[in-house]
Design goal:
- With 139 residues, the protein is of the alpha+beta class.
- 19% of the residues lie in helices and 37% in strands.
- It has 1 helix and 10 strands.
- It is globular, with a radius of gyration of 19 Å.
């Protein structure tokens, strides 16, 4: 497939999606006010792969957690001078997550938040991943 065919196929798909949403968008989009999330802009959403009742939502400096598919939310992390960069959910534990911030990595459980790694000065977090029990931070 040449690039122009790829672009044409992608354009057709995009136009089809726009048409679909314009015809039935009102029926597809249902929004409700939820308890626990401040008036903020959510930039990232993570759903636990083993339990879709557990959802994390991250704003610029706050991490929220829901244990009931998003009906109610609790703040689990608030950073004063740091930005939330990413989150890695443990695939085997419902109660363990790792958060990458602009200053380092935090281990988050239901009863604690612990900074487990601090970044050297002038180093920036880009991504976070976990494999076979090892947490990787891309800088």
């Amino acid at each position: 497939m040449v690039l122009s065919e790829f672009k044409e196929g992608t354009m057709r798909l995009a136009l089809s999606m726009i048409l679909l949403f314009s015809l039935c968008g009102e029926a597809l989009a249902v929004f409700e006010k939820v308890e626990g999330i401040d008036r903020t802009s959510i930039g990232k959403v993570y759903v636990h792969k083993m339990d879709n009742n557990i959802i994390y939502a991250a704003s610029a400096n706050t991490l929220f957690k829901s244990q009931d598919k998003g009906r109610a939310w609790d703040k689990v992390f608030v950073a004063k001078d740091e930005a939330v960069v990413g989150l890695c959910l443990d695939g085997y534990s419902y109660d363990l997550a790792y958060l990458a911030s602009s200053e380092g990595v935090y281990k988050i459980t239901s009863d604690s938040v612990e900074k487990v790694f601090s970044l050297p000065p002038e180093t920036q977090s880009l991504c976070l991943a976990k494999n076979k029990g090892i947490v990787f931070l891309g800088t």
